[in-house]
Amino acid sequence: MSTTLGCAVVRHRCLFILGTGRSGSTQLMDAVNQLPRYLVRGEQGGAFHHLWLAARQLQEAFGESGRGSGRGRLVGEEAGAGEGGGGVTALVPAGWDESRLDFGTVKAIYDRHAPLKKLPWFNDFHPKRLADAARAFYATLYHYHLPGQRGQRGQQELVSGFKEIRFVSGRCFPPGSPYSDFAAFMAFLRSLCVDVKFLLNSRAAADLEANTKLAGMLRRFVSGAGEGQEEES
Predict the structure, then answer these.
(1) Residue 3 confidence (pLDDT)
(2) Rounded to a whole number, what is the largest CA-CA distance in the chain?
(3) What distance in Å separates the CA atoms of residue 133 and residue 8, rounded to the nearest whole number?
(4) Do residues 139 and 145 touch, judged by C-beta distance below 8 A?
(5) Which of left, alpha, beta for 80 (phi over 0: left; psi -120 to 50: alpha)?
(6) Alpha-carbon gap, residue 73 to 55, rounded angstroms
(7) What gap in Å lies between CA 30 and CA 141, rounded to an integer?
(8) What's the CA gap between 176 and 23, in Å, rounded?
(9) Residue 134 near residue 55, CB atoms below 8 Å
(10) What angle in degrees, to the nearest 10, is found between the helix axes of 47-64 and 179-190?
(11) pLDDT digits over 201-229, tens only?
């Protein structure tokens, strides 16, 4: 089932399997996919970590927009100036939503300031719009309707998702990354659907002897990443 939040279509139920290498995550994915109306996809090379990084960078760009004017974000400040603000605030309809200003309002803000100063960071990438974009991206890839049951309650049974082993330190997250980065990323995954569940899967033993193959895989990964950096430099 899909739910509409704001301007985005959002998948209702999602399941993400987050594991470590050689932990049996593929077998776990296969076991889950034996359930009717469950379809969990496999590895995606850490793609959703890149999507999170892109969304975070766009949020930073939104914060930088207009900062050089000394007035903070041009779009945010102009639209929310309050009573007596004048300028383009008069163009904002009653009950406006800063996250979804119309074209005319944003263009008027730009036209007002562009003749007076350079606007290298000008944008209206409000965090709510970024969240909508991420949800729409996920829904486009994962959304299915059950044949003959469009709009019926049975669609609520559909569960989509993926499994990934790269959302760990030393892979997607550089060694020494703070836990807050992982927590922020998990919050991003939770925002993709209405009802999100995680299955966390790791090896039972953490000692090197029990993980010889995994240790070798990580050494090859680190070595390959270093060679790639040397080639680029």
Answers:
(1) 53
(2) 71
(3) 7
(4) no
(5) alpha
(6) 18
(7) 20
(8) 22
(9) yes
(10) 100
(11) 887 666 656 556 555 655 665 566 555 44
